[in-house]
Structures are given as C-alpha cells and as structure tokens.
Queue: 4 jobs
Job 1
Amino acid sequence: MTWILPQGDWLSFEGLSCPVRVIRGLGEGTQGQVFEVELAGDRFALKWYLPRCLQQDPSLERRLLESIRATAPNQAFLWPIALLRPTSGSQDLFRSSRGGFGYLMNLRPPNFLGVVEHVAGRVDITLRNALRACFFLAEAFHALHSKGLCYKDISLGNLFLDAGTGHILICDNDNVDVDGRDLGSVLGTPGFMAPEILMRRDRPGANSDLFSLAVLLFLLLTRHHPLKGQLELEIRCLDEPARRRLYGEDPVFIFDPADSRNRPDPREHLAALVTWPIYPGFVQSLFQQTFCDGMRNPCRRTLTGQWMEALSAALDHRQLCPVCGMENFGARETCWHCGQSLPLGAWLVAANGRIRPTPDNEIHPHHLDGFQTPQLDHPLARVVAHPGDPALLGLLNLSDVSWQVVLKGGGELRVEPGQTCNLTALTRLETPLGTVRQEFSHSRS
Amino acid sequence: MAGFPNVRLANRPLHFFYLCDGSGSMAAQGKMQALNQAIRQSLPGMARVARDNPEARVLVRALSFADRARWHIAEPTPVDQLEWRDLQAGGCTAMGEALILVAEQLRSPPMEDRALPPVLVLISDGQPTDDFEAGLACLMQLPWARKAVRLAIAMGHDADLEVLQQFIGPEPGTAARGRTARRPLQASNATSLAQYIQWASTAVVGAASMPTSRMAGAELEGNIPLPDLPPTELDPMDDVGPMVW
C-alpha cells in the first residue's frame, strides 16, 4: 500500500505549536487513509483525504469545521477534534501535488472490534450486551439528532463494539451535517439507506438516519438483515439492480404482519428465526413501526427516544432460565432455548419501571424519576451474587448515598455505598430519589 | 453459559477466478515471477477483505493458459486456505480455451442457485493463438458470465488490448474520463502489476460482496459499481484529468 503521509517523519501543521509525528498507517478507505500520530506526547488518529475525495465533496471542510466547533454529541463518537493543513514548509513531505487536509480524532481503543465480528458470529457476546449496544447506538443517534445534526451514512463499516460491555464507537463522522441543509454528496450505503434515498426520491437526513439505525439495531439483535427473506432467495445474482429491488423498489420487512411475501427461509435465514422470538413484543413492534408503516412514510419511523425506552425496558426484563441458564427477556412464558417454563419470580418495582432481580440487572435513575431520559452509564444499584454462594442474590449500592432498607418482618438497616443487601430479606428500600419495592407478581407482564 | 445464539449472518459464495497467461513470452523480463509474486502478496489483503464482508464466502480458483489451458487451482478454495504455487511460463497463448474452461464452471450446476457476482481477472502479455472469439462466445452465453465483474490486466506493451477489451465488454464512451477498469489495465512494470492485482483482490472483491457508500451523481455503470483504481506511480493522486489540452 502506498501511504500518503511519510511514516516516521515529523510534520508541521498550520495552527499547531508543535509538530506531529506520523507513527504508522492504520488503514485505508475510499475517502482517504488513517494514521496513528503523536502530538505533544499523546497518540491520536489522523485521517488524511485523497485529493479526488476533496474534489468530489467541496463542502467537506466546512462541515468538518462546524462539527469540530459543535463538539461530539456524546462519548460514542470518534469525533473530529481539529482540522490539519500542512504548513508551507511541510508541503514537500506530502506525496500529493496539492495540499489537502485531514482531521485529528481519538484512536479507537483495541477492545472495540468492528460490528461485523459480531454479526459474523466471531465474538462471544451476551444477549444483554447486544441489547446494551443497541441502547448505546440509539442513545448516540439521540444525542446527534438532538444537536440538529444527522449522520447520513451509517453502516456496519463505521460501527465498533466492545463485546464485553456493549459500548459502541461510531467512526467516520465526516458526513455529519445540519439536518435538512444537505451539504455534501453522500447518499448512504445500499442495505442501510432508506428506500426513498436509494430510489433518489429524497436526500439523506434525520428521518433516513432512523431507518438506517433500525437496520443496524436489527442486525445487532438478530445477525440478519431485516429485508432478506423469501424475496432475497428469488434473486440468483445479488448485484446492484437486485439490491435496488430488494431495498428500494419493493422493500418488505421479513416479519411484516400484513405482508408475508418476504418471510425468512428456515434453512437460509435461520438467524432471524432463532433470535426474533427472544425479544419482547414492545421491541418487535418498534421494528414493525419502522419497517412497515415507516417504510414508505419516513415520519412514522421509530424515534431514538422510543428505542431507548424499549431497549432499556427489555434489559430490565432479563431473566436467566433456571434450567439452561440462557438469558430471557420476558417475551414468552418458556425459555427460548430449552423450552422450560420460566418462573413468575420477583420484580423490583420503582415509580417508573420494574426490574427482574437477575445478576447484572441494574436500577438506573430513570427508574425512579419519570422525567429522566433512560441512561445506562450511571447505575444506582446492581443485582449481584454472593461471592461465596452464587444462589444468594443481593443488591449492590452503586450510588453515593446510603439506603434505608426495610426487611421482611419489619426490621430496618442501612446499606452504605459499596455495600450489598441480601435480596431474600428485602421488602423495600428508600433512596433520596425514591422507593424500590420487591414484589412477587402472579402474572408475567 | 448465557450467550448470543450460535447463529451468523447468512452469506453467498463469491467465486473469484484468475486467468493467467503462461505463454513463453511471460518468461521474459521476469514477468511470470512478477505475476506469481503479485498474486501471492495480495492474498493476505484478500483474506482481510473476505473477513470484513461476512455476507460473502470468497472462493478462489485459478487457471493458466499456454499451449493448452489448464486449472492451476481447480477447487473453489477459501482465500485463507489458499497457497499460491508458482506458475511456469512456456508455450503459446490458448486464451480461448481458458474462457471455455471458465465457462464450464459458470454453468448451473456447478454454479450454485444463488451467489454474488463472480469476479474474473484475465492477465495476459500477448495475443491469443487459438480461437478467442469462440471461447468468448461460449463464455458470454452464460448468465453468470454476463453478470460477472470482468477485469483485464495487460502486462507490458505487447498485450492485445482489443482482445482484452472484448473480454471486459463494450468500451466505455469518451465521457469516462481518465483511467477506468472498464478498459484493460496496463501494467508496465512489476509495481503497477502488484497494485492492480491487489486492487482486484481487495477493493473489487469488497465491492462485489457488500455495497459501499454511494455519492449523489455517481451513475451506475455495469451491475457492480467498480471502486476507484489505485493511484499510479507517475501520478500518485490519480485522475486529475488531462494535463494539457
């Protein structure tokens, strides 16, 4: 591979007081190349554009400068930090006749792998972390759209995942634009593009982002594409015209309740058939909203906030099958994996939600305060097993205040931050944000 | 152990064919060695692209043509299991027969009912010495051949560009400015050969297996949009348009 920037050399850029050392080339895309660089003792990634990319996208510099000024919507974005142009003295070191530019961003930590690794079945991940990844993705788009911005070209290629935590990173943020302004020429990637964009009836924006988001969420949860069913099997050669039919001219959701033409094939599309029944109806219906009504009517698509609520609620429903240990999410009365009946069991009930007392399930501020947007990053409490007796469950106080706990039989005790209280004995706990009760319900919903 | 169900994204086969000229003239100026090296060096990158495109199952075959055409790698081989044994040069240029061999493999069966567009890469430094027209006609009557991404690399200055263009398809109109893979790629030295082989085995495999970003105004030419060609040595940044007019 021919690298545009000389590796090992120090380069000076306009507006930077110290030079940047190019450590090594990291990769190459259609737009340019990415390098690991050192600046003032810190390591960063530098994306450098190919001249033909700058030629094709004259508003790129303006969008980047605006993004840099706007700062990252949240921590899930590998956002541009600074635009770099070579000083006239450095110019000769660039393997390019004209100056060009690039931008600096943080390096992607090594624990983040391409989401393709997950959909290809090459990483171990729990269903919990797949759902968390979905939540974080919806949250990232929520933050982006809340700033009045849109992404335009999300696909498997620019999404990275830490399978151990469910955290995600969104890369290639250089198509980000003010929603509705339509600077720049990217349309998206077939398969992820909303039908109206693929068919050139509209230009990409926040509404088409909502379609792409739903495709990615579906892929994360099922390892299958939402539009690949029987209609895909009828295609012999999957090329551009075929993709246009499948994703643009006649797109049909594989689980569309009103149109069964595109149902998954039990042999070819097994992933969809195995995974779809795992998820509760309130998650499935959001996919139906986007891929049925919302297929032709962009303003009917599921909003980021709806996804966040449903995905966090699905996590709250997480229950382990007492026989096989697999994770279930309240979708059915029996385990999706072994078919055993699941116990009705207990709930931790707060003012704005209820949580199954399953190890790793968490109580978050939004459970207690209905005005808070769901968040997963600052849990107040987590269900944990006793280190010496895995059957004994407790609630770990992750907040910075002590709880007042009311026990069965009426006794009370204080649980300080960092302490865990035995769930078998707990009836109710009082926190400054509100009350959580343990209830044994007689119904599943 | 609780975990995600043991399922994975459905995939389709992507058949990749190298059609390598093994005629006597390839022995001159180390051309055969350069081609062997270029293909061998391109394999890790090809394996990486295959890995990044889980919707494709990339399977490679190769044949060479001299006095006769014969399979060099007859079995469709997953790219990460591929070992490239050196091709030897010697004999005439049975390019027409090579196309007939490929045609036999693009019939259904042995072709699967469903696949991604095959990729055919024809590399030659000379003129066919057998009935090229008949071979091409035999190939092009097959739907999978017509759907295939067909690329041609001309090694050196003696290659028959007209024949290679016929293999690719109709020459693009004058509107297609600069270099395009809808015309034969001209590799004048080992470096540019390696770049084209690398490009065909990575960027083209990627484009044929999974769609990439689309820009407004980019009109579809052929049934798979071809990625930009690698920069050439003389003009590292490529495609700046005519220098003088």
Job 2
Amino acid sequence: MPHLTLNHFLVVSALLFGFGILAVVTRRNAVAVLMGIELILNAANLNLVAFGRYVAGGITGQVFTLFVIVLAAAEAAVGLAIILTIYQMARNIDTSRATTLKE
Amino acid sequence: MQTQFVIFVFLALATLVGAAGVALSRNIFWSAMGLLSSLVGVGGLYVLLSADFVAITQLLVYIGGVLVLIIFAVMLTSQIQDINISNRSMGLLGGYLVFFVVATLLSFVAIWAPWKLTDVAPVANTTVAIGDGLLGKWLLPFEIASVLLVATLVGAIVIARKEVKSDS
C-alpha cells in the first residue's frame, strides 16, 4: 500500500479534466456541455486544494476554491437560463444548430 | 494510512467513473447521475485533503444547487420519452484523441515536476481560518463575489422569464 501523496490527487484531477474536455468537445446537447464545464472546474478546484495541502500550506488554496465554486454556481444559473430561452425559441438545444446570430 | 489509501481509491473510482458517464453516456439523465457521483467523489477527496469547509460547500452548492438546476434543465428541455438527444458533434475518435493527449500530458507534468513539498501540518479547523480570511485578507474579492451573485440572480431571471407585453 503506497503512501498518499500529491501525485495521486494530481493524476485524478488530470483524468477528471480530460473527461470534462471530452464531454465539452463531443457533446451537442448544451446541458451536457455545461456538465463538462462543471467537471473541468472541479478538476481545477481539486488541484487548488491539493497544492494548498501539500505545497503551499495554509488555507489560500481553499479560499480560492470557494471563489471558484461561487463563480461556477453563477455560471450554471446564467447558462441554464440561456439554454431554456434557446429551447423556447428553437425547440431544441443542439449547440451546432444555434446559429441565428451567424445567419 | 492503509485505510486512507483504500478510501482514496474508492473515491477516485467514484469520481472518474462518474466523469466517464458524463462524457460517454448516451442518456442525458444518466449523465446527470454521473455528475452526481463525480461531485460526491471530489467532495470526499476534499475531506482526505483535510479541507472540511470546502467539502461541505461542495455538497451544498454543487450537489444541492448546481446539480438540481441541471436536472431541472434536463427535465424541461428534453421530453422524457425521447431523452436520447445527446448525439455527438466531433466524432468519438477526435474526442478520445483529445482526452488521451490532455490526460497523459497533465499526468506526466504532475508526476515529473519537482514540487517543493511542505511539511506544514494542515489547518485543523479550517472554518475559523476561512471566516477570518474572508472578512480580513480577502474582503474585497468576497464583496465582489457578492455583487456578482446579485448580478447573476437578476440576469438569470431576466433571461429566463416570459416576456410580458403591456397593452398600452
């Protein structure tokens, strides 16, 4: 049984970030893209807390994480409101078909 | 220390399996459930990193707030009968390529970089320290965050409400 170190958390965070990128890149459903963004923000948060615990010490990383969580909540609220409006206009939330501004 | 590692493996598996479900599941509702598993796992990892306040905040804000909002959006935007509208945009091959490049690159950097590890013991009761910090050293960002939350509240309502035309 190995000792728990910084690297373990960083690798988990890297994989989490990769899955988030995968969701953002491959999904067309706007809600699923938003879920991918949440995964990416969670990976960044995990990195901040892990570095705060093993490298920097103190609570600076945790406070930064709290601000990121606040921003993520705000982003989710506004993003979902926009998605609902698009759905009411176009009856679908396909990100590749929301091109009204381009046409 | 041994039990700590076992718990870490369990939480990491919950996090990564959930994240894979978010990225790969064809049913958008199962994606939301995968997000739930992933967020709970990350919250547990915060506890392992002795960040108790952040872990509780994760539970309250992400799982109690953001996840419920996302499930609301799933229910409102896709009919339950044909919920399988989560089709691909880029093709899975390109997506997997991006995933492997990003994940392996970040993992290698994380493992090979010579981090200067500290041996300072973690803060025992972080709630007191964070409360002191938010009302002292980080007061300005705290206030800016509260202004941002008010702006978000108003903005989300204005965007999502139904337009009411007046008769005059």
Job 3
Amino acid sequence: MPEAVVETRGLRKQFGEKVAVEELTLRVNAGEVFGFLGPNGAGKTTSLKMLLGLVEPTAGEGKVLGAPIGDRRARARLGFLPEHFRFQEWLTGRELLHFHGQLFGMRGPSLDARADELLARVDLLDAAHRPIRTYSKGMMQRVGLAQALIHSPALVFLDEPTSGLDPLGRLLVRDIIRELREQGTAVFLNSHLLGEVEATCDRVVFVKEGRTVHELSLGSEGAGVDVELRAAGLDAPAIEALANIGTVTESRNGTVRMRVASDDRLPEIVRLLVARNVALYEIKAARKSLEAWFLEVMGDEQRPG
Amino acid sequence: MRAILVMARLTLHEAVRRRILTAALICGGAFLALFGTGLHFMVRNLGRHNLMTLVERQVALNMMTLAGLYATNFLMVMAAVMLPVDTLSGEIHSGVIQTLAAKPIRRSEIVLGKWLGHWLVLAGYFVLLAIGVLTIARLEAHFTLPNVQHGLPLMLLEGTVLLTLSIAGGTRFTTITNGMIAFGLYGLAFIGNWVEQIGTYTDNSAARNVGTIASLIMPSEALWQRAAWFMQPAITRELGNTPFSPVSVASGAMVWWAAGYCAVVLCVGLAWMRRRAL
C-alpha cells in the first residue's frame, strides 16, 4: 500500500450545537491528486481547515505527512491556497512570494530564483512589481497558487483553485497540477467544477452532511463504463453470459444496457456475441460522468429548487 | 524568533507602504509647527512682562511645554489604539490570516511579531513628537523640562499598555468592538483619575478609592499623571497650580502594575489566538 500523506479517522467538528463535520474518515496517498467533493455546506472547507490545523477537531484523530494534525514540522511541507485568497494587497506579487518564502525559512538567491521561477510559471512575471491590489481576480488566484508552491511542498491543499479563472487560467492550473503529480507532490483538491476534478484527479471522495459517503477511483478501473448494445437473436443464455462480464441493468426488445468495469471488457462482449451467432448492429460505450456520479451519490434531495 | 522578526518587518513595511508613516509625519509636523508658533508668541509676550520673576517665567514655560507633551500623549494614545486595531481582527475576518497560520509558525509568533512591529512604529512616532516638543522649547525659550528621562518612558509605557490591549482584543473581538473597548477603558481611566484628584483634594477617601480602582483596571492616565509629576519643578508639584500638577500621584508600584498589565493582557491575547478557529 502506498504511503499515506493524509489519514483521518472519525474526525468531527462541532461549533456549539452545530455539527459542521460529522465523521471524516479518509486517506490520501503520496503523489496522488485527490478530489474532495460535496455540495455547499457539506463541511468540505471545515474539513480542510482541520487538516491544516486552522480549526481544532472536536473529536477523532488524523495524521498529515505522518505527524498529528497541526504539527509545525508537517506544516513546513504543506502548501495551501484558500478558497477566497486574500492577502496584504499593498505588497507586490514578488514581495508576497518573498514574504511567504521567509516564513518557510527561505532566503537569499535561492528564494529569489524560486520566486521568479514561480512567477514565470503562473504567467505573472510582467506584473511581479505591481501591488496585488491592482491584480484581477484571476491574477490574484495565480499568485496565491505560486505562494502555495514557493517551498516545493510534499502536499498541496487547493480550495477552489480555478473559481476565479478564465478557461486559459484553468488550463494553466490543470497543467500545474499535472506537473505536481509528475514531481510526486500530492494534491488535495476541493472544487465544485466537476469537469476540472475529472480531468485532474486520480481519486475522489464524496462528502455529504459532514460524512465521507463514497469513494471513486477515476483511473481506468472503478468509475465504470456504461454499455448499450443493439442486437438480434439475444436469448436468455446470451444475456446470462453478458452478466458474467458486467452488470446488466436492462434488456428489452433487442437492446441491452449494462455496466462494465472498464473499456477493456468491450472486445470480450463483442467476441461473446459473435461466438453465439448474435447479430450485433450497434455497441456504444460511455464512461459515467463525474456529474452523474455526484447526482447519484448525493441524491435528489441535495438539488436546490 | 525568526518568524517574529519576519512578521515585525512586514508590519513596518505595511506602515511605510500604506502611508501610515507619511500621515504620521505630516500630522506630527503640523502639530510641532503649531506648537512652535504658539510658544514663539508666548515667549515674546513673556519678554514684555518685566515684572514677571524668573520663577514665574519658568513655571509658565514648564506648563506650556507640558501642554505640548500632553497633546503628544493624546496623539500617541490615539495611534496606540488605532494603528493595530484591525491588524488581527481584520485579517481573521478577511481570511488573510489563514495562509499565515497554515505556515510552520506558531500563532503566538504572528501576534508577537505584529506587536513588535506596531510598537516600533508607535515608539518612533512618540519619540519624534516628544523630542520635537522638547527641542522647540529649548530653541525658542532656552527651556529644558526636568526629569524627561523619567517622564518620557512612562508616557511610552502608557502607549504600550493601550497598544497591547488593542492587539490582544483583536484576537477575539471585531474591529469595532475592539476599538470601543480600548477607548472605553481609556475614558474610564481618564474620568477615574479626575475622580481621584478631586477626592484627594476634598479629602474624600471613597472617591479616591474609586479613582485608584479605575487606574488598576486601566493604568494609562495614572502613568501620564506620574510622568507629568516628574517633569515639573518642585514648586508646581507642591502648589498644584497648573492643570498638569496632580494632587494625587500614582506610586512606583503603579509602573510595575502597568508593566505586568501589559504582560498579562498579551498572554490572554495569545491564549485566545491559540484556541481560535480561523
């Protein structure tokens, strides 16, 4: 089993009578991009804050980078971009990175070089000398991302990192997340933009009413593929044989709908039908979207209106 | 310690970049210009009173210079409360503090760094104004206030008390509430001290005790009275014939009380900050 960078068991946070997080049990592995999904008010941000040591849990336990939650040595290897990134707006972009670098004990030419490298990476080198108050929301988000990465962390928490960005900005963040994965940096991504999560995450956890309710791997395995096939001569033994390959959800008037684990099972279905002399007219495969998963896991009661 | 210094440097940087220092220099300069002009005309007027004895002249100049320091004291009190009043509450409210507190620094280092940075700004502002007042008195009237080495540190301690209160309050209260509490306590000390003076003058021990209790709750005014008492000649201390000649002067124990007060208030602020959800 890969090393865990985040591991919690029964983490709970209660503000007076209000329970913000009921029971958070999750694990994030080293080097993976982990999505944390849930509707508004599900307790995602409070969960994130507990993992960062900003909010003390009421109960439960957890470790981040092998140390108890909130440990200062572990925080030295964490990066964090809050949802509503705000900073002393009178600082310039470069000064902001220097200040945050100094808080990690960085200094001198190595800090200068790292700050310039990141400013170039988030496309802010030309604006580095300007006060942050003159930045657009997107620029603010990008300089915030740069401050989260200034010390080359082992784990980065990104809370809605693309919320203020245009499509090009989103692509930039997506590329940076991919680079982080390639460098072996784990990313804990909290985002409402399911398309972004789908494009970047290896694994997601759904949170509902302060509890982790479902886990899904977004690689080739786990998420599943929905298959629809139209054929003549489909008899009961053929349907039974298909059920051995995947889960048949519907079979009517020569149309079968089923779910298989991955695309790899499609040739097997075709071979089986041909071997049984079934005339196959059409076969369609569609990966179940994360949005569909989200709606299924959360249920209709979570939908507003 | 490194993180405290980084935070203190950021606070100083903020004072420069947000033109707080510029505003302080302009206002301080305007105040000193006004004081210098007033003293100039007063000294010229004193020169015309040939019947005035040397002692009377010294008493008049002492009162005028103390009036300048009283105004300095007031400006410093304002600055002590206003400078840091939203430094923590504002950053907690806006979420700025989250990126700081998630770094490998203690929350106490954030508070202490801000305290140190603001104290340096306050001390610089105070020294500039106080030295300005004393220099103007020296140049225009050839007058030197006595015992400034005892008086000025007491005034700075008063500013430190209020600054510490404002910083500590910011760890728990909103900016407005924090400002109201700090100025409210300053007002309480101000009124309490007058009650004490009148109580002493009329030999009313109950009134005197009320004033003493007010000074224990907030020692700011007692520190100013003790500073003013030091910085005047024995004759005005004894006669109590100027607005800055207290009838009742806080003892040296009040200075220790004020120093302990700062330490305790700061510790309470640190404890609040440590437990606070950010």
Job 4
Amino acid sequence: MGTALGRTFHTQVRTFDWKWIAIGLCVALTVYIAVVPLAFLFWQSFFTPQTASKAAEFTLGNYATAYGSSETLRLFWTSLKFAFGASLFSFVVGTLLAWMNERTNTPFKTLFFALSIIPLIIPGVLFTVAWILLGSPKIGIINLVLQNALGLEQPPFDVYSLWGMIWVDGLHYSPMAFLLMTAAFRAMDPSLEESATMSGANIFQVAWRVTLKLTWPAILATLLILFVRAIESFEVPALLGLPVGIQVFTSSIYQAVHRYPSQIGLASAYGMTLLVITSAGVYFVSRLSSRGNRYATMTGKGFRPRKIDLGPWRWLAAAIFVVYFLLIVALPFAVLLWSSFQKFYSVPSMQALQNLTLDPYRFIFTYPNLARSVWNTLLLSFGCATLIMLVTSVICWIVVKTKLPGRWLLDNVASLPMVFPGLVLGLAIMIFYLNVDIGVYGTMWIMFIAYVTRFMPYGLRYNTASMLQIHKELEESAAMSGASWATTFRRVILPLLKPGLVAGWIYVMIVSIRELSSSILLYSPGTEVISIVIWELWENGQYVELSALGVLFILALFVLVLLAQWLGKKFGVRE
Amino acid sequence: MTVTTTMRQAAAAAALMAGAALALAQAPARNDEIYRYRGVDRDARLIERAKQEGTVVLYTSLAPAESRPLAAAFEKKHGIKVDLWRALSDKVLQRTITEANGRRHAVDVVETNGPEMEMLSREKLLSEFHSPHVADLPQNAIPPHRLWMPDRLNFYVVAYNTTKVQKSELPATYEGFTDARWKGRIGIEATDAEWMATLIKTWGSDKGMAFFRKLAAMKPDVRKGHVLLAELIAAGEVPVGLTVYNGNAETLKRKGAPIDWVPIEPVAARTQGVGVAKNAPHPHAALLFADFVLSPEGQTLFESMGRAPASTRVKSRMKAFPYIMIDTATVLDEADKWEQLWDELFIRK
C-alpha cells in the first residue's frame, strides 16, 4: 500500500503533471477561503473596538471578559446540554431513517427520501414558530386537542423547556444526519451484512454489530458536525429558551456584536472555545480514519450494494416512516399551510375556516424584486454547492487517501469556518474585502465567498463520509492500468463518491438558499436573495405571507430534490 | 454650472471607486456647504442638482411595507431613483460604519432608530443639515448637535388580545399589572432596558425600582422582537404585552387581528431619525430626500401607514396622548448600567 502511494506521489513528480495544478488550486482556494476570516477574527480577539474617538488597542481583556466570569461557564454548560441533546436526537432520527431508506427494502423509499428533507427546507424561524403554535401550553394545538380528548388538567407538552428546544432543533437538523448517514450507508459493501445474516444473525444484530460498526468513522464525523452546529445555533434558544430564562453561549456572542461599539474582538474570543472543541474533534476523527483501510469496504471485489430483506418487518418500517411524517413533517407543514390561507394567524376553528383567503399568495407573487431574488438565490446556491462539493472532494481525497504530512491540518482548517456564527463570519468577510479591494464588495461575489466559507466544512464532511468507505485498491488498479490522476479522479473516485457528493450537494444547496445571517450584511440593492425576503416578511410581522412563501419553498425544493435524485440515478454508476 | 457639477460627479465617482485620499478629504467640506446652504434659491437649486445626481442611496431599518411606498413617492415626485438597502437597525449601523472605515462611501441618507443615529453621529459619519421643515419638529426631540433629525416616533404601549382580555379589565396604571391576577398573562420584549430607564427616571429611583422589582417577581413572559411579541398577542399566546410598539399593534389591528392597544402613562416615546452622510456621493439628492421625509407630504405618508409622524404639523391618532421622549444620548451613555439591571431582573431567571 505504501509503495502504491509512493508511486502516486513520487515517481510522477519527475515529469510535470497537470494534477499538481488541480490539487494546488483546490488546496490554495480552501486555505484562502478558510484562513482569511479565521486569521482576521483571531487577530481581532486581541484588540479593543475602534471608534472615532478611540483607536483600537492591543489587549488581553477580551479573553479576561469572556472567560473570567462564572456566567460564561454557566451559559456554556447550558449550551453543552442543549447541543448534546439536539445532536444526539437528530442523529438517532436521521440515522434510523437513513438505514431504513438505504439498507432495507421498505416500500415507497424514493418518496421518503424527499420527504425526509422537508424539515431542513423550512426556514428556522418558521419551523420554530410552527412548533410554538403546536406545542405551547397556552395555544398549542397538540396540547389543546389532547387536553380536550383526555380531559387533562395540565397541558401534556411544554415547548418552552430544554427538552422542547432539543426536540425542535433536533428535528430541524435531523435531515442533515439523514443525508450524511445516507452517504455513508450507500457507500458500504453489503456482502459483510450478508455473511452475518447467513451466519444466523437477525436484522437488528446485523444493523448493530456490522452496519453501525463499519460506519463508525462516519458516525463520529456526523455527531461532531451536528454538535458544533447545535452549539452555535441561535434561533431555537432565542425563541424557546429566552421566555423561560434558558440562555446559551451564542447569546453572549450576539450581545457582544450588538453593543456599541461593536465588540468583534470579544465575540471572537468567545468563538475560540468552539474552535478548540472542533479542532479536537476533527483531530480525533482523522486519527480514527487514518488507521489504514479498516473501514473501507468498497473494494474491487464485485461491489454491489444490496438491500436487506426485512420480510414482513418492512411494513413496520413503512409504518414508522408514515408516523414520522405525520407527526414531525406533516404537522408543522399543516400549520404553515393553514396559516398561509389566513389573513392573520388564528387557532384553527370553524369561524377561522370562513376567513380563508388567497391574499398571502397574491402578496408573495407580486412582491417587488421577487423574480430577481429567486434568480440570484438559485445562481448562488447552485454555484456554491457545485464548487464546494468538487473542491472538497479533492481536499477530502488528500486527507483520507494520501500520507501527506500536515493533511490533518488541512482537514481542520477547512472545517473551522463552521464554528463562527454566520453574523460574525459575514462581518469578518465584509471588513476584509472593504480593506482589500479586489472589486467583490457590493457584488454577488462577496456573498458567494461568504456562502462558500460558511458551508465548505459541511461539504467536506459529506465527502468524507463516502470517501472513508472507498478502498484504495480501486484507484491503485486504475493507476496500474495506466490511467492518469485526472482520469482516475474523474472516472473512479468521483463516481464512487457520488452518494456523498449528491447528499452534500443537496444539503449545501438547501442551506445556502436559507442563509440569512451573513447575506443580510453583504447584500446590496440589486443582489437581494430570497432569504432577505423571508426575513423582511418576518420582521414586518407578515406571518401568514411568510407561511405562504414557506409552502411554495417546500413545494419547489421538493421537486428539486426529486429531480436531483432522478438525475443521480440516471447518471449514476450503479442501479 | 453644469460643468462644475459634472466635475463634482466625476470626483465623487472617483472617490467612490478608487477611494482616492485627496478627493475624500475634500468631500466632507463640500458636502457641508451644500447641507447648510440657506440662500433664497435653496429649494430650486437643490432640486436641480439632485436631479443631475440622479440617484440617492438610502440605508434604513424602516419596514419594506413603509420604506417602499416612501421611496416610490419620492421617485415619483422628483424622478430621482432611490437605491434602497433595508436591514435591522444594528445592521444599518454596522454597514455604515464598516463601509466608512473601509473608505467606501456609498450611502447618502440613513434612516433608523434614534440610538443608532446617535452612534453614527459619534462616529462622525453624519453632517448637520438645514431643512425648512426642521421648524415643525418637536424641539425636545432634536439632539443638541443637530446631526440627525427625528422623523418618526414609536411608543411603548400596552397591547392586548381582545378575545382573552376586555378593555375594561385593564388597569389605569402600570402598577396595576403587578396584581396577582395578571400573573402568567403579561409579556415584555427582551431588549427594552431603555423603557425601564425612562420610567425609573420619570418616577424617581425609589418608586421606579420598587415597581420593576415587583414586575420582575411576576415573571413576565420575555420575547425577543417587538414584532413577534405583537404577533403572539394577536395569536393569544401572550394575552397582554407591556412594551409593544403601537405601530406594530396597529398594523395587525388593521388586518383584523384580535389585538388593540392603549397608552398607559407614562408613555415612553422612541425617536427614529434621518440624517445625511458626511461623505455622501450624492449630497444634493441626500438632502432632498431628508427634506421629503420631514415635509408634511412625507410625514402624512407615514401617518397613512399607521406610523406616528414626528412633525407637529401632522396630526395622528397614533400620538394623540401625552408622552415622554426617551433621551437617546443619555440612554446610550448609561446603556451598560441599565442593561445589567434589566438582565438581572428579567432575563436570568
């Protein structure tokens, strides 16, 4: 194995090879994109804010303020509990769905794939408010119905609690786990599962002892990214935690930025904790995955993924899907649908039924600049998803498949932008490109750069989930047969990586359509995106119009996902 | 005249694009001259030159439902295009400051909350301007440095869900809400420390602190965002809100939602303001726009959209009650103190 790598990396150096250009470009781009805001924020964390009356001064005060109080520790502890709960919950839900979808013959799977992604499509504020309307002790529909039906004194659910927050946030991001684990499962050789079944193991033993064990690095990587994302989430804690006094770490970051003068240094100092946690996590995962090919099951031996026959159990699996969708996807969607036909939100009743109207939809379709916003959004999200997935596939190949020294650092650098909340990252990018004028400020390009920076870490994880499962012998045989690196990459690696590529592409596409926190600072007249429209409606209190837009959003993306799936199948290597 | 204007435009464009230091150093002085001109031909000259500039760039936190009609009315009247950038007040502040630090002078006029206007003044990004309509503004709302002018008012009022609470039930004073029967039925917004500060200053420290301690003991529902608070009142989730902006409640009420509002004394008024950028690339258009916003025409437009105009010449139901102006500059100076108290009382439970 080592010799094979040696061949890839040393013998070809003698003759000039275009692959170095491609690899070099990808590495340079990744490092540039990630290091610019990181270095800037790190630098800022040692300075006081600059104002007209007082210049910035070097200080260690930001760290003293951030970590010198017991308050920070208390908030951090709440954040840890919340992030741990939410990430574990989304992981369990997402993985179960992914397993049923990928490894079993549950009926109607194709449809379920698209349905599983719906929570991700619904904008965060909308999803959270939908759950307030469902699970609030005062007006929550679920509570009202259950109280009436069972004659309960107390409402059974309270969405304003740590558990409520974990539930809502966990559900909202379960599609991320679903997509990541889908990629991991799809790239797994089922022959091992088959042997286990032949040796008399039942379905659950196979799933537990073989399937999950083999996807162990992907599981850890998924948990890591879910955890970091949950710890920097803001909407759910602000809407559900605040009313009952549950505050998290990120609220300190936001408070720091919103003070006058804006304390970017303090916000960065807070962010450094997340940076350390993420670095440790990335290091641990990469150590695990660098232990040779223990987890690579996709080898040259007639690889053909086959589904486990659940037998009669498959109907139970289908039933679980149906229940999941009714409870988790359909309910918030129904709330949106209901409010999108109202003049203002009211609890469903016969009287409210008479007030049904199409006004919110009319309003949306005549919204100024709507077409331009949609076009800008599509352009940005399509370009961003495509670039990220292609570049990170090369990065991921370097990290997973080569023995280059410092490759762990590359992985880490590319993963770090995700620790900073979008607002802080957006601000860093804005300040940088105002001072280093390369003509991107005020154009779509600066938003493109911001999106790529924010979502590159996610793209990388998706690719890694698949890459870990591909055995080196496949590219080695291609190289032996005389294929160049470019040919091998294009004809062997990329097709084998397809599950991760497609899942990551869908994910990045969806989240970049929704991206608001950095867009809001960076857009200019003429480069509006659809998330600005969402935010405007929300800030205007036009909840019903926002619901209408949400419904349209879900329908459009649903079609998009089905299309992507169909394309994936059509141009795929398998099936 | 045309030649000089063209040259000025060229200079402004050069400053904008290249950030040329020389042009920049000259721009504020020249803009100041334009902003303060008081000659008899002021209006005619302003309109003519503004039209030559052709565009005005506006950064505002005014909701699109109101900023769009305002921009459209201005475009219709003068044929000058309004490039509208809208975001929350803190983003308006951040963008304006950051762009100025990066020597990118894109903005002409800023229209946002009083405290943020005050911060922009302290960052020396605004210029004093003369407008014939300033005489119509409430003089106690004009900051002493006159770097921005109040154009709208927002009032902290009590809003309630009309199906859950009868108007006759509502107490006549804020103290009434510390009665046990309001427990679990009242809500406040998460960032209203300035409201508390104004009430305590009005009542005196003893009475004021006693009230807010009692209110904190009621454990009011704390919600983030004034719009959300108003929405949740209309939906019945929060039966009564104590710190609702009357503009937000009015918007929902006009749509037919079961919400109404009453001013309970002392009513604290927040100013929103308008100011012209010191380094505006289109100084004439900037001033003309500020003129328009403060004119009876612009102020009447605000009134028709359910916003309280600042001008004393325009009457409005939205401000037909006694109120106290929040002292923006003092609030800003004492922000740390009040926010800490607010946090202790209402946020950390």
